[in-house]
């Protein structure tokens, strides 16, 4: 049972739906997908997180802030952790993205 839940969570990560960064100037180079929280997968919880982020001139994500999340305090940590690992072409800028978590 536990293995099937973990497999389901792994497949759920593949089913995540993403939008492109809001800024046309940002050109993605590396995008890390967030991990679906195991507890949320076990409970069958689905939702989304909207984040705004700032990219430094070297193309690294400098800051990430949660703008909206439903349900609250379920997916935010996973979303922020993933976006902090994204990389963009040099130049910097700001972006906004909605990450949907669905099983």
TrEMBL record:
Q: What is its main location?
A: membrane
UniProt entry keywords in alphabetical sequence: Cell inner membrane, Cell membrane, Membrane, Protein transport, Signal, Signal-anchor, Transmembrane, Transmembrane helix, Transport
Q: Which SUPFAM superfamilies match?
A: TolA/TonB C-terminal domain
- Membrane topology listed for this record: Single-pass membrane protein
- Signal sequence range: 1-24
Which compartments is it annotated to reside in?
A: Cell inner membrane
Q: Where are the transmembrane segments?
A: none
Which Pfam families does the entry mention? TonB_C
Record domain TonB C-terminal: where: 21-103
The similarity annotation says: Belongs to the TonB family.
**Which function does this protein serve?**
Interacts with outer membrane receptor proteins that carry out high-affinity binding and energy dependent uptake into the periplasmic space of specific substrates. It could act to transduce energy from the cytoplasmic membrane to specific energy-requiring processes in the outer membrane, resulting in the release into the periplasm of ligands bound by these outer membrane proteins.
What's the protein called, per UniProt? Protein TonB
In its UniProt entry, the species of origin is given as Lysobacter arvi
Mind giving the lineage of the organism this protein is from? Bacteria, Pseudomonadati, Pseudomonadota, Gammaproteobacteria, Lysobacterales
């Amino acid at each position: 049972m536990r293995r099937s839940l973990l497999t389901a969570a792994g497949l759920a990560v593949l089913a995540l739906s993403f939008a492109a960064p809001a800024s046309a100037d940002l050109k993605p180079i590396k995008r890390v997908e967030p991990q679906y929280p195991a507890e949320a997968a076990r409970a069958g919880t689905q939702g989304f997180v909207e984040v705004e982020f700032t990219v430094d001139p070297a193309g690294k994500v400098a800051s990430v802030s949660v703008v909206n999340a439903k349900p609250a305090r379920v997916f935010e940590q996973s979303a922020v952790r993933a976006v902090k690992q994204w990389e963009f072409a040099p130049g910097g800028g700001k972006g906004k993205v909605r990450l949907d978590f669905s099983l």
